Amino acid sequence: MSHLTQQKWFLVNSGLAIALVLSILICVAIGAERVNLTHAWQWPSLDNPEAVILFRIRLPRVLLAAVVGGALGVAGAALQALLHNPLACPHLIGVSGGASLCGILALVGTSMISAHTAGFLKISLVSVAAFGGAIGTTVLIYRLASVHGRLQPYALLLTGVVFNAFCSALIMLVNSLVDFYQSHTILFWLMGSLAAHDYITVGLTSLYVLIGATWLIAQGRRLNLLSLGEESALQLGVDIDALRRGIFLAASLLVGVIVAVSGMIGFVGLIVPHLVRLLCGADHRLLLPASLFGGAMFLVWADTLARTVASPSELPVGVVTAMCGGPFFLYLLRKEGRKVFAR
Asked: Do the Cβ atoms of 51 and 40 come closer than 8 Å?
């Protein structure tokens, strides 16, 4: 990196990090129930209902939103570079479909267990099943999208779309066979939720995301070379096959762990990298970490809107991100179509 680029990298990411911290502090204070922050901070005990609302309910949720949004943002930026497709999104590669299917099967299974243990099992078994489904799906899609041992970007994208459609059909089949209560639970989980998680879950998820995101960010220079074309990247010493495998596996496992703890939250990995690219440029050394911070801020505010806009009821956060992402996707589709027609 040149001196100027280093300075820009530091200033942009420092600014985004400060903005993220401020967003977390502001969103923790926002909610359906008014909380006296001074009173909550001074007496942080179970006897103080304001402290319970602030520290046991809101803060873990806001922190989890930041972790989930950051993971989806950096995974989306990496996949768009890998697939050379600005419409690529973490949930299009098929891993989310497999994770959701396994998670829903576990969700239905835990609902048949006694009420005394169901709460614990739904947090553990559903997450483990969804993550296991993500790993299995990653291996399957990698094999299907590989031609003579090489991962093909377009085959990967098409395989992911078809596999997601297949999993969606199986999910609808399961949904049609369960009772009304289970069907409602499945639907809410499919639309994404960040509620009912503790600090242990947030901490473990953060550690996992930190490892995966750090590896992806470290590939920024190689992704810049890959954007010049495969032949140029090869001449400059980039092992393209190894890079594609690594990015696909890292992004897939990030999506898998996110689906395991939050369900299906779409469009974050589509919207955020584009907005960051417009503001900061296309250099992946800056784009990847900036997408991490940008995705975290986006989902923190989206979840705050989801839990307050229809108070005292609550919207699934996936509904809010879809309402933002749907029109944005159509805009990008039209924009790319014009570029193709112009050529």
From this structure: yes
Q: State how far the Cα of 295 lies from the Cα of 276, in Å rounded to an integer.
A: 9
Which residues contact residue 261 at a Cβ distance below 8 angstroms, ignoring those fewer than 6 apart?
64, 68, 127, 197, 201, 205
Structural element, H or E, at residue 150: strand 150-151
DSSP string, 298-317: HHHHHHHHHHHTTTTS---H
**Cα separations in angstroms, 5 against 18, 157, 278:** 20, 33, 17
**Would you call the peptide bond into 49 cis, given omega within 30 degrees of 0 as the criterion?**
no
Asked if residues 209 and 291 have their Cβ atoms less than 8 Å apart, the reply is no
Question: Residue 69's closest CA among 261, 286, 204?
Answer: 261
Residue 110 and residue 272 in contact, taking contact as beta carbons nearer than 8 Å: no
Complete DSSP assignment for 36-58: -HHHHHH--STT-HHHIIIIIII
- Angstrom distance (rounded) from CA 317 to CA 216: 26
- The total number of residues written for the chain in this structure: 343
| Adjacent-strand bridge partners of 147 | 150
- Helix pair 59-83, 153-177: axis angle to 10 deg: 140
- At 246-286, the pLDDT tens digits run 998 899 889 888 988 898 898 899 999 999 998 888 899 99
CA–CA separation, 16 and 139 (whole Å): 35
**Residue 36 phi, psi (nearest 5):** -80, 105
205 and 127 in contact (C-beta within 8 Å)? no
**Would you call 91 exposed, middle or buried from its count of C-beta atoms within 10 A (0-12, 13-18, 19+)?**
buried
pTM, full prediction: 0.88
Rounded Cα gap, residues 338 and 6, in angstroms? 35
Nearest to 130 by CA among 113, 150, 109, 144: 109
CA atoms within 13 A on the CB side of 20: 25
What is the domain partition of the chain in residue ranges? 32-342
CATH class name, domain 32-342: mainly alpha
pLDDT in tens, 311-341: 778 888 998 998 888 787 777 767 765 664 4
